[in-house]
User: What shape does this take?
Amino acid sequence: MAASANNVTDPAFGQWCPGNQYVANTAGSNYIMAGLLFPYVKSLGVYKCPADQSFVNGAPTIPHTRSMSMNAFLSPGRSPTSQSAQDIGNTTSPKKETKYFKDSDMIHPGPTSLWLLMDENPFSINDGFMVINFNSFGWTDYPATYHNKANGIAYCDGHAAIRKWTDSVVVNNNSSAGNGAGTITPFTPGNGDFSFIISQTTYWP
Assistant: This one.
């Protein structure tokens, strides 16, 4: 779900990891500790890649505490007026995309091919979920590339993989301008990165 909570004790904002890495006063580790996942994964270090040396936008003395983001199609808000549903954007045209709320929903593309978490670009990371939407025809949030133009991806079956990115839109995304605000940048024509990751983000019948 979208992570825009300012009150970490408010149960209405229950999600895997609240807070916003784009905003200084909601980027602290207390927001990770308030997440639904923290009781099961209590080491703060696993939420941030050691290679991520970035800082909160506009706050050069405040380091990011999280570099991982979750697939936006995994348990977003069910109401079309929810923040997460609004952030994902159009999920019906031209393709009707699948949202996953329980294990048995993961029929297509299946848990081995459905990504759960990945390193997000430090210039686009904001809330706890990462938007990659076929119907946008471009990048809203960006994979991280600080591992020699690659990042780590964890899948719903528990395995992980490294993906090396080649789309110049992704590998050259090194500015906070337009990031964190839902701005869509078209993918590079002829490059396979966007089609690869969208096929592992959701399913359209």
Q: What stands out?
A: The CA atoms of residues 140 and 184 lie 5 Å apart. DSSP finds four helices and nine strands in the chain.
